[in-house]
Each structure stands twice: as structure tokens, then as C-alpha cells.
């Protein structure tokens, strides 16, 4: 059984493409992420399930990605970013991750099996894959897989963490992996827990201020205790998160959208 009675909630990812973006440059996950200084107690089984081999999305996936490499790299990236130099008992006891490619609305979501939450499923939409321009498809699929893989390995304060923080941590790892889509921007509007890249960039800024371990410490704090906003942030950063968000907004040039030119990704 998992020590987490409430698994991360299934989360759907907003589409990541915008029609007027420049072509992305090929990006590499930093090499050292593939030698993570973090090992789970048990090496997870990685599986792939293809619901319809005839769908163009499935075919593009198979053509552009080596599934076993892509999944293992995503696991390594997540373990490096969230658990480097942490002992195995700090890492959730995820035993398997199954990537399921199927036709569905939305982009992707992650869920645990009802019968045993240590077994995770990442559902990835073949319709979405089909909708992405060829030039950016490979990086986009890798980015989505990394984002969803975070949900397979992150803590969630016994189910009480704000959804925006959970999503922000997932996109922060995606940023660290160099797999942020080209249209992502730092936003100074909204709230710190608006989620996705808004919160992801905020966490990146916190790293600059409080050291590169800060997101690891945030995730660690989410392991055992229920989320109480004031206590939580004063433990992690010594300040209320609303003050931190204000400082972040000021660093982007005040209350206006810093260098934001696109709308929100949702
Ligand atoms: Zn998510």
C-alpha cells in the first residue's frame, strides 16, 4: 500500500501549441539527469499500451520516439529534479508506470489504479498528438511525458496540496528538462497557484532566491503533513507565499504581465 492515502488527482494538461510560434530548437535533457543521484527502493516497471495502431497519433509517436528511452529518461529527470541526494524512503513507492496512447479529449492525465495506487497510468491523447505540427511534435511529446511522469512521483500533502502547486511542480520539472514549449511566458497576472507554467516559472524564481534545493524541499514538505498554507511556506521559505508572489510580480515589472505576449495556455 502507498503511504499516500489520497493519490495525486488526475490532472488534465492544457494544449501547448500556438499557431504563430517560431520553430523550436532541438532540446536535450541535461546528460547528468540520466545518472540521477536518487534511486527508488524498487526500479519501476515501465509499460506502453497502444489502443489503436492505425491512428495517425500512435504512428507519429512510434516514428519519433523510442518509447523505452523516452519513459526511462522521464523517470530519471523527475528523480533527479525532485529527489537528488535524497534517500529511497523519501521517494514514493511507484511500482509501475503505463503509458497509454488512446483517442480522447484534452492532452494527457495521470491516475493511479483503484486497486493499488502504486501502479500509475499516463493517458496521452492520440488526437492531441495528431494536432501538433510535425516540427515541434517530438519535443512536445517528451515534455508532456515528463510533466505527467512528475505526477507519478510527487507528494501531495496527503491529498491536500493546492492543485496549482502540483501542476506548477510538474511544469517546473519540464522547464528544468529544457522541454518548455516555445510559447511559454512568465506571467505576472493571476495567482501564485494558477498552476502550469505560471507556477512553474514562479518556482524557478524561488530557486534563484532560496537555492536550487527549494523545490525539492517543497516537495519533501508535502510528503507527511497536510497543507497549511502559512506554516508550509514559512517552513520552506520563511515568508508567506503571497508576499513571495508580490516580489515575483515586481521582478517582472509590476502588476502587469511581464513579457507576456500570449494568452494563458488553457
Ligand atoms: Zn498535470
Automatic annotation (TrEMBL):
Residues 1-27 have a biased composition (Pro residues). Residues 1-40 are annotated as: Disordered. Pfam families: BSP. InterPro entries: Uncharacterised_BSP. PANTHER family: PLANT BASIC SECRETORY PROTEIN (BSP) FAMILY PROTEIN, PTHR33321. This is BSP-domain-containing protein. It comes from Aaosphaeria arxii CBS 175.79.
Amino acid at each position: 500500500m502507498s503511504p499516500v492515502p489520497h493519490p495525486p488527482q488526475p490532472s488534465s494538461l492544457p494544449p501547448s501549441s500556438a499557431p504563430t510560434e517560431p520553430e523550436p530548437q532541438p532540446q536535450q535533457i541535461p546528460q547528468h539527469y540520466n545518472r540521477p543521484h536518487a534511486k527508488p527502493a524498487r526500479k519501476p516497471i515501465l509499460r506502453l499500451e497502444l489502443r489503436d495502431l492505425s491512428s495517425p497519433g500512435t504512428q507519429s509517436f512510434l516514428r519519433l520516439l523510442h518509447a523505452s528511452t523516452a519513459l526511462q529518461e522521464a523517470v530519471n529527470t523527475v528523480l533527479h529534479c525532485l529527489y537528488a541526494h535524497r534517500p529511497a524512503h523519501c521517494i514514493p513507492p511507484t511500482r509501475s508506470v503505463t503509458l497509454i496512447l488512446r483517442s480522447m479529449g484534452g492532452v494527457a492525465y495521470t491516475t493511479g489504479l483503484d486497486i493499488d495506487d502504486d501502479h500509475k497510468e499516463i493517458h496521452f491523447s492520440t488526437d492531441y498528438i495528431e494536432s501538433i505540427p510535425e516540427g515541434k511534435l517530438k519535443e512536445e511529446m517528451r515534455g508532456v511525458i515528463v510533466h505527467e511522469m512528475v505526477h507519478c512521483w510527487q507528494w501531495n500533502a496527503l491529498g491536500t496540496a493546492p492543485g496549482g502547486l502540483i501542476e506548477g511542480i510538474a511544469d517546473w520539472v519540464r522547464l528544468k528538462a529544457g522541454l518548455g514549449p516555445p510559447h511559454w511566458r512568465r506571467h505576472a497576472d493571476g495567482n501564485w497557484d494558477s498552476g502550469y507554467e505560471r507556477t512553474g516559472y514562479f518556482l524557478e524564481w524561488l530557486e534563484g532566491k532560496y537555492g536550487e534545493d527549494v523545490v525539492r524541499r517543497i516537495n519533501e514538505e508535502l510528503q507527511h503533513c497536510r497543507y497549511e498554507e502559512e506554516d508550509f511556506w514559512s517552513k520552506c521559505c520563511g515568508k508567506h507565499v503571497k508576499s513571495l508572489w508580490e516580489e515575483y510580480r515586481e521582478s517582472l515589472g509590476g502588476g502587469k504581465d511581464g513579457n507576456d505576449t500570449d494568452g494563458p495556455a488553457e
